[in-house]
């Protein structure tokens, strides 16, 4: 794991490697044996060890293991490479440390020989998987090379062992989808994987739904006795233990889908595997694992990780008793010692360098603890070693890790990418409709079945939208269970308000709320109040608040609309009719009041007047407020030199993509929020006690606390570089000519507006520019990366220039040259990641541009620059033919008005944001 070390940590080895000498943190010194022996010979009466000088054994050597220095995310797949932090860790400094040897992967012949020797003749299923694996490994496409990391030799051995023991259980397609956790892959690499599977798996027509798979199999049942338990066709003797209190005892309903997953978990458990369960929040990962351990009678140790988990806290727990430090074993160490099952929850929340210490424990049963003890495999442990601080790994020890899927909205680390091939991995999804219906009926036996059915169908559609990328948050079974349990407990409560408890957070994202409420209304759920801005529910809540707090009418009249005075201290003003930006007042611009000309938010808590009082305003005052409102709006437009007509024209292009803009901005905000996440600042004189400085505290040190704050860059750490996007738009004459045929130019202008609107405010993280290509120009500059349009006026000017160029340019096509120039220009820039998106109307054959030539142009600077093409127009099926003959995941066909922003958002999520 040398590739995961910070460069300053690795640099500590320089003196040891080159000079055979090292200064230890406690003041002692290590000396080479030659120098130590000379020093001892010159001073025979001196005890060098007592003076803190230690002899390095002449047989001492360092063997470092590391993975290749490839960049994470540069391939545009959204699946991080297994090399850890981005950037090359092999530098001029590290090159002088070691003699390097490359360990190549096994060839197909060698791998087949190993599998044949261990598990008998290779079956047809294993043969298909082998072909897919070596196709991905030998491909020159970086996307396929990254995917190949999930089919390592270790994974192939695991698959072969499962097939050997439970051969009739699953086919090649199921095993591959499970190995890649394709359910949670971004769409681009998933399409590439599907393309490879279509090529090497007979009769493969895309991933079958779990419902089709489950319906083709016999129902799963559970039978248990005092001696054994059987799940489906797999049985195991019940475990005998004295730690009965640690065996989970939960309420669990036998959902068929969950039982089928539990049988697969049991099979891998019996094969000696450690397990990894990945899924969205609220899909039942903990419940499934606890039920499995309950059936087997296995005691459980539990540990939940978080952002501040350290290596020490993962292995030891330090406490101070009577002025003495005592170390208690963590749940991990207890599980190792006593043979319990360690459940590691929220593994994606901890830093990768912390969870990576589990690697040797999972692989070899070894781990060095921070108090000097060492966990060792049971075969190497002796009584003497145990007494000397060696802890043998109990033969029954097993680890089950639970993690949320990587990426937005959970924003965890990609545990699967870092350590996934050490575990038998399983994707946990929400129950299928029939299974979910059965589950909800158990939680709400008194709730009408028709209501439950509508909830199941509506939330199933919401999850499909999340999978397709049109919704960010994947609503889980947990939310539906909460609704049904509430209705069971309080049947008189309005369904609209109960559902609103789940949706309230989305009120801060109106576009998302509109999508969700539209789906719920379509399924007959009574939430019309939410669809209309939640006014009815808000009124109910205001009424309850009024009943508790306010029962009187203010009785104060309005005089006339005005802006109001501006408070230089921006203090909150409640009521009155003097200050601009106040709340609950009269006449002035503000929020929650009455008679004011327009809304003005000063950032304070809003005090809302009742609707009845706000409506009790003379008509002449209302009219005056409307006139003042319009004048202020026109003045705002004049500030940006934009007429009302121009504003209306711009809205024609901005309104259709408003929802997609909001969704993309949410993703960008999450990226920015994570980058700015605060870290623990140590060595403070106040804050929370730092458990790593207990010794210093006992000796009188005062700076033994830690505080949360934004982390300053470490000395020598390079400043984070922005990501770069170049949008190459097609403004050729054919775009204008055939716009009336399929609306291609309108779609392109909307996509351009989406980029300009969504990326506004994120210049520190992402810089973009927009250039056009046509029959008379290779690169027409529309937006400069250093001066992107900041208001609607400039954005309208941009799309007007694009429209005018397409109308008046000469005929011809420079798609190929424009692509090559854009890719080459970004390759020269020093940026974190670079992506080029080319928009074209696929009018290529007329100018002799073949799919192969376009494919070569896109890949000319891979992996430094990731380039894609989106065909937004086509005569007949030319666009489809070109896309099918290009590298999978590099070309898209978009003939639907709503698809283009969605495709671009997928590209951003898969390439730009990982």
TrEMBL record:
<dbReference type="InterPro" id="IPR027417">
    <property type="entry name" value="P-loop_NTPase"/>
</dbReference>
<dbReference type="InterPro" id="IPR039891">
    <property type="entry name" value="VWA8"/>
</dbReference>
<dbReference type="GO" id="GO:0032991">
    <property type="term" value="C:protein-containing complex"/>
</dbReference>
<dbReference type="GO" id="GO:0016887">
    <property type="term" value="F:ATP hydrolysis activity"/>
</dbReference>
<dbReference type="GO" id="GO:0005524">
    <property type="term" value="F:ATP binding"/>
</dbReference>
<dbReference type="InterPro" id="IPR002035">
    <property type="entry name" value="VWF_A"/>
</dbReference>
<protein>
    <recommendedName>
        <fullName>VWFA domain-containing protein</fullName>
    </recommendedName>
</protein>
<dbReference type="InterPro" id="IPR011704">
    <property type="entry name" value="ATPase_dyneun-rel_AAA"/>
</dbReference>
<dbReference type="Pfam" id="PF07728">
    <property type="entry name" value="AAA_5"/>
</dbReference>
<dbReference type="InterPro" id="IPR036465">
    <property type="entry name" value="vWFA_dom_sf"/>
</dbReference>
<feature type="region of interest" description="Disordered">
    <location>
        <begin position="552"/>
        <end position="584"/>
    </location>
</feature>
<dbReference type="GO" id="GO:0005737">
    <property type="term" value="C:cytoplasm"/>
</dbReference>
<feature type="compositionally biased region" description="Basic and acidic residues">
    <location>
        <begin position="554"/>
        <end position="570"/>
    </location>
</feature>
<feature type="domain" description="VWFA">
    <location>
        <begin position="724"/>
        <end position="907"/>
    </location>
</feature>
């Amino acid at each position: 794991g040398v590739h995961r070390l910070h460069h300053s940590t690795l640099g500590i080895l320089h003196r040891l490697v080159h000079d055979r000498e090292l200064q230890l943190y406690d003041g002692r010194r290590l000396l080479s044996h030659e120098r130590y022996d000379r020093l001892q010979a010159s001073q025979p009466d001196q005890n060098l060890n007592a003076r803190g000088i230690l002899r390095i054994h002449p047989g001492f050597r360092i063997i470092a293991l590391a993975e290749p220095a490839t960049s994470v995310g540069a391939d545009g797949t959204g699946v991080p490479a297994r090399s850890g932090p981005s950037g090359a860790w092999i530098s001029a400094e590290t090159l002088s440390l070691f003699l390097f040897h490359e360990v190549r992967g096994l060839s197909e012949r060698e791998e087949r020989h190993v599998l044949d020797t261990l598990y008998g003749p290779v079956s047809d299923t294993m043969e298909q998987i082998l072909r897919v694996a070596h196709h991905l490994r030998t491909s020159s496409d970086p996307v396929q090379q990254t995917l190949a990391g999930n089919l390592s030799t270790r994974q192939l051995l695991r698959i072969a062992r499962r097939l050997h023991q439970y051969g009739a259980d699953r086919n090649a397609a199921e095993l591959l989808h499970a190995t890649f956790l394709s359910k949670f892959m971004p769409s681009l690499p998933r399409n590439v994987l599907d393309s490879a599977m279509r090529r090497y798996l007979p009769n493969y027509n895309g991933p079958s739904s779990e419902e089709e798979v489950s319906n083709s199999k016999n129902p799963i049942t559970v039978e248990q006795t005092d001696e054994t338990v059987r799940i489906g066709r797999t049985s195991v003797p019940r475990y005998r233990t004295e730690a009965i209190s640690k065996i989970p005892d939960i309420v669990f309903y036998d959902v068929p889908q969950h039982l089928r997953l539990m049988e697969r978990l049991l099979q891998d458990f019996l094969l000696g595997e450690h397990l990894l369960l990945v899924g969205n929040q609220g899909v039942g990962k903990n419940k499934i694992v606890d039920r499995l351990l309950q059936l087997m009678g296995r005691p459980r140790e539990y540990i939940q990780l978080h952002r501040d988990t350290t290596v020490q806290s993962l292995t030891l727990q330090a406490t101070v008793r009577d002025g003495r430090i005592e170390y208690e074993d963590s749940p991990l160490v207890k599980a190792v010692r006593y043979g319990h099952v360690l459940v590691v929850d929220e593994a994606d929340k901890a830093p990768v360098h912390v969870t990576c210490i589990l690697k040797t424990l999972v692989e070899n049963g070894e781990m060095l603890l921070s108090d000097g003890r060492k966990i060792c495999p049971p075969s190497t442990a002796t009584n003497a070693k145990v007494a000397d601080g060696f802890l043998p790994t109990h033969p029954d020890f097993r680890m089950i890790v639970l993690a949320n899927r990587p990426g937005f909205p959970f924003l965890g680390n990609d545990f699967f990418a870092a350590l996934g091939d050490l575990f038998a991995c399983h994707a946990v999804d929400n129950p299928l409709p029939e299974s979910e219906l059965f589950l909800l009926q158990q939680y709400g036996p008194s709730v009408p079945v028709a209501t439950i059915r509508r909830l199941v169908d509506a939330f199933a559609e919401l999850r499909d939208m999340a999978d397709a990328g049109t919704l960010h948050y994947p609503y889980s079974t947990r939310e539906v269970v909460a609704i049904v349990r509430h209705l069971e407990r309080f049947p008189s409560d309005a369904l609209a308000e109960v559902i609103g408890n789940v949706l309230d957070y989305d009120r801060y994202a109106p576009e998302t709320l509109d999508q969700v409420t539209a789906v719920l209304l379509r399924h007959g759920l009574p939430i019309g109040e939410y669809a209309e801005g939640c006014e009815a529910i808000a009124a109910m809540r205001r009424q309850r608040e009024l009943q508790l707090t306010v029962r009187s009418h203010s009785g104060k009249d309005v005089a006339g609309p005005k802006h109001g005075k501006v408070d230089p201290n921006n203090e909150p003003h409640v009521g009155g009719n003097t200050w601009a930006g106040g709340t609950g007042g009269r006449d002035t611009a503000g929020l929650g009041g009455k008679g004011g000309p327009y809304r003005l938010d000063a950032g304070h808590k809003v005090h809302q007047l009742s609707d009845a009082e706000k409506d009790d305003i003379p008509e002449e005052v209302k009219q005056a407020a409307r006139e003042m409102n319009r004048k202020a709006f026109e003045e705002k437009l004049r500030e940006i030199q934009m007429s009302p007509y121009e504003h209306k024209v711009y809205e024609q292009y901005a309104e259709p993509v408003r929802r997609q803009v909001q969704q993309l901005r949410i993703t960008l905000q999450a990226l920015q929020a994570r980058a700015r996440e605060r870290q623990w600042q140590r060595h403070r004189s106040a804050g929370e006690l730092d458990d790593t400085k207990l010794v210093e505290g006992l000796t009188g040190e005062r700076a033994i606390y830690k505080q949360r704050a934004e982390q300053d860059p470490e000395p020598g750490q390079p400043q984070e570089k922005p990501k770069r996007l170049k949008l190459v738009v097609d403004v050729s004459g054919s775009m204008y000519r055939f716009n009336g045929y399929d609306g291609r130019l309108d779609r392109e202008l909307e996509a351009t507006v989406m980029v300009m609107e969504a990326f506004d405010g994120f210049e520190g993280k992402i810089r973009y520019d927009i250039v056009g290509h046509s029959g008379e120009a290779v690169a027409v500059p529309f937006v400069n990366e250093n001066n992107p349009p900041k208001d609607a006026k400039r954005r309208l000017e941009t799309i007007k220039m694009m429209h005018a160029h397409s109308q008046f340019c000469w005929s011809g096509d420079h798609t190929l040259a424009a692509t090559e120039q854009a890719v080459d220009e970004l390759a020269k820039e020093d940026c974190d990641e670079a992506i080029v998106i080319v928009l074209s109307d696929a009018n290529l054959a007329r100018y002799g541009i073949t799919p192969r030539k376009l494919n070569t142009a896109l890949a000319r600077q891979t992996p430094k620059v990731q380039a894609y093409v989106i065909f937004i127009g086509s005569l007949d099926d030319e666009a489809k033919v070109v896309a099918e003959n290009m590298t999978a995941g590099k070309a898209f066909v978009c003939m639907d008005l709503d698809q283009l922003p969605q495709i671009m958002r997928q590209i951003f999520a898969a390439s730009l944001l990982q």
